[in-house]
Amino acid sequence: MPEPTKKEENEVPTPAPPPEEPSKEKEARTTPAKDEEEVSPPSALPPGLGSRALERKDSEWSLGESPAGEEQDKQNANSQVSVLFVEKPQGGTVKVGENITFIAKVKAEDLLRKPTVKWFKGKWMDLASKAGKHLQLKETFERQTRMYTFEMQIIKAKENYAGNYRCEVTYKDKFDTCSFDLEVHESTGTTPSIDIRSAFKRSGEGQEDAGELDFSGLLKRREVKQQEEEPEVDVWELLKNANPSEYEKIAFQYGITDLRGMLKRLKRMRRVEKKSAAFAKILDPAYQVDKGGRVRFVVELADPKLEVKWFKNGQEIRPSTKYIFEHKGCQRIMFINNCQMTDDSEYYVTAGDEKCSTELFVREPPIMVTKQLEDTTAYCGERVELECEVSEDDANVKWFKNGEEIIPGPKSRYRIRVEGKKHILVIEGATKADSAEYSAMTTGGQSSCKLSVDLKPLKILTPLTDQTVNLGKEICLKCEISENITGKWTKNGLPVQESDRLKVVHKGRIHKLVIANALTEDEGDYVFAPDAYSVTLPAKVHVIDPPKIILDGLDADNTVTVIAGSKLRLEIPISGEPPPKAIWSRADKAIMEGSGRIRAESYPDSSTLVIDVAERDDSGVYHINLKNEAGEAHASIKIKVVDLPDPPVAPNVTEVGDDWCIMNWEPPAYDGGSPILGYFIERKKKQSSRWMRLNFDLCKETTFEPKKMIEGVAYEVRIFAVNAIGISKPSMPSKPFVPLAVTSPPTLLAVDSVTDTTVTMKWRPPDQIGAAGLDGYVLEYCFEGKPPKIRIPRHLKQTYIRRVGEAVNLVIPFQGKPRPELTWKKDGADIDKNQINIRNSETDTIIFIRKAERSHSGKYDLQVKVEKFTESASIDIQIVDRPGPPQTVKIEDVWGENVALSWTPPKDDGNAAITGYTIQKADKKSMEWFTVIEHYHRTNATITELVIGNEYYFRVFSENMCGLSEDATMTKESAVIAKDGKIYKNPVYEDFDFSEAPMFTQPLVNTYAIAGYNATLNCSVRGNPKPKITWMKNKVAIVDDPRYRMFSNQGVCTLEIRKPSPYDGGTYCCKAVNDLGTVEIECKLEVKVIYQGVNTPGQPVFLEGQQQLLHNKDF
């Protein structure tokens, strides 16, 4: 291999010559003095610096590294006293294909846990990630000696394994490091002057075909030889003259990866060497050589007897096949054969006590693109790979898109994959935006190609299908297309908005629209449109609901009551989708819609039965049947027509007295459809036409006893029946009757004689004979024994009332033979004879209470029993007392000469209703009480005409039928009547805070509209300050749209939609905002279209709160 030509400092740099054939290299080795050329230094940096010449030498896997390749700082580190290492790994030499092991030991006596050990090649390459087929790391621990042993074994070494290695050990805050070198030689001896390997290229390191020869290297070298030599470029001159912002660009173009290290080394090169007494000619400041080439260092001694030593990075260089030393007079020459990147370092030579140094730059050959990029066509979503090949493994290649560098990252769709010499740009999920010109740039060239990304032909694998879904069920629209792309769903031309009930699912090539709990507003035309394609997938969703009849507003037995003669409008809410058809019937006869007295009316959400003038015959069971495509429903409703009852039949007078009679009657034959509540009784004199009502409270029984009639005057009575509807017509009058006093019983009745068949009796006339005179006598006889009968006195047939402390003495006569058995009970329990005395005789029983108490009040039951016959009667006794005082009395207000009082009723009413209150006043000075109001029925009063300047107290008594309460309740505070001239101070009131956050008092309601006819949406809102109203449609504010008009009057907000079309349907929102908050309310508007008088999709519906029917003819 010829050596690089020596250049003068001002000489224009020329590129290094191409490598020659092995035969020529051998010839050059035999005649070094003649053919070898010296390398002269540039002004500051050797020209034509290779792409790896300026990299850190200990960060590369290179061939032919010298055994003394450590840097000065590593030498100093190894010379320090070890902190943790007991035994450090030592440098070594190994032949290609052989194994070598490096050992480091650490003492564990002072360590509580295992230390951390790392192996590096160069400065930064961690070998833990390289462990595998050719590199193994091992750790052991000897318990007896307490020694950790760490081993690194290199298996089947290769030339590029040579270099500088480092071992680091760490424990807590302690740290120790050690550097060592590995030199790899060929396994077979070769002549040093002939390096046939430099003409060959080896395939990827660490692969199965590692070590195989690649003859394309020879061809390339021959081709390069045939080419004209291009002038070398002095990179240093470029950097020195260039703007600092262009350093990075120049470094990449000429393969400089350690720009910062290069500048440091050049800074050291600028130092001016002092004149030396030992050297007549010193080393040049710098030398450069191509990788695999040969370089010659020459110094000239002033004294040829001086001993010369050569050093590399501070370590002495020994003669070997790589390093050859020659002596020519005063010249001392060192040749370095087969230069590799590890030879790129500082060299110096010593002669006596003096030395001179230089820098050697090893330049890699430029990286060439051996396989160009090819134009590629792909479809969207596919994975695209752009591939090229370069001349060296793991070369630095930059990718560009339309001239801009591609920087891959975690979130980028671009990935760069390197497989030896192959460099591949991977684009995941290509899109149309990826269509561009791509280029790959190396230090020796570039390659470009065009990428065209088109849409893949879309195939519909599973189209959407029309669906008919029951209300409340799930709607699932599913389609499958050939590509995994996104798309958009629309309903009736409007985008579908996701919610808790509506979900859009995209999984691979499958797209789903899932609607949980289907509603009627979910019905419509749905379309799925894949993004970037003009294809659409339509489907119609029809939501149906089986008809339902809602009878919540009726009774449990579905009965409707109507008064005869009035109008019945029975509106039954119904539901169903589509709106069901309703049919009313009675007794298997259909009730038609029309204008008859009994007719049916149908609406979308209700069905109505109308009876204009209800009659008795209209009572009965009516049937309603609903039917739509989802099913049928049936219900029965009972209609009951109620009327005034028929008049009762004429009453019968069964018994008369001096001023009374007993009458009875039968209930009317027809009660009007409503139970009889009672009866009213009227009477009149036979010769008079004026009827007088005898009772003002309804008589519940069919027996009544008129009183206070004039004896000897003929009377007639009649009856009125009463039910919930009203009072019937009067009955026919009874037969005339005359009240007459009954004569007293005959006296001195005695038996005169008795025979076998006769009894002779004698008596005296009665003591009292009424106005009717005595017509005769009636004789009766009976056998021994008589059924019991109780004769309750007239005054005991009503509640018997006595005051506390009064005596109660009641005599109740009865009949019965033999002597009956009597039983008294009070409120269902036996009477306590210690409190109530009972005395019985053969003809009557007496109940006696000496001093009545309120506890004696109650219902007393008397039972008379004769053998198997019994008779019962009841008496109500009420013992009353004076009430207690009112609970509290308050002065509510005082103004002028008036005082307003209020009080609460007494807790104890004395077992009788409170009939009124008595109010008294007293001047505070005298405290003498005067009555102001008596028998006052309310619980508040205003006392007037009070004396100005006085101060008054007030008290209130309660009153019932027994009189006033014993005590009175007095006001706790007094009322002061202000004098004239006194200034009245107005009370101070704090300003009321009228501020209020917005609140809707009347919400928006879901509404239907007819296309072409104006529609309005109304709601009411309140708030202070006055809120700002904003209307939105589908979450988009309505601003300056002539199709909409917005009004706000006294808090009523109105949105008018002028002649809406189906596209105006959607969700409308009214938003109110003020300083205290924001509130929104929404509603849905559906616009229906009418074609040639047919309403689509259903009949017109009532807007909420309206009652009107829209007929097709109106449109």
UniProtKB/TrEMBL annotation:
One of the GO BP terms on file: sarcomere organization
Keyword terms, alphabetized: Actin-binding, Cell adhesion, Disulfide bond, Immunoglobulin domain, Muscle protein, Phosphoprotein, Repeat, Thick filament
Superkingdom of the source species: Eukaryota
Keyword Repeat: yes
CDD domains assigned to the protein according to its UniProt record, in alphabetical order: FN3, Ig, Ig_C5_MyBP-C
SMART domains (UniProt xref): FN3, IG, IGc2
Protein name: Myosin binding protein C1
Gene this chain is encoded by: MYBPC1
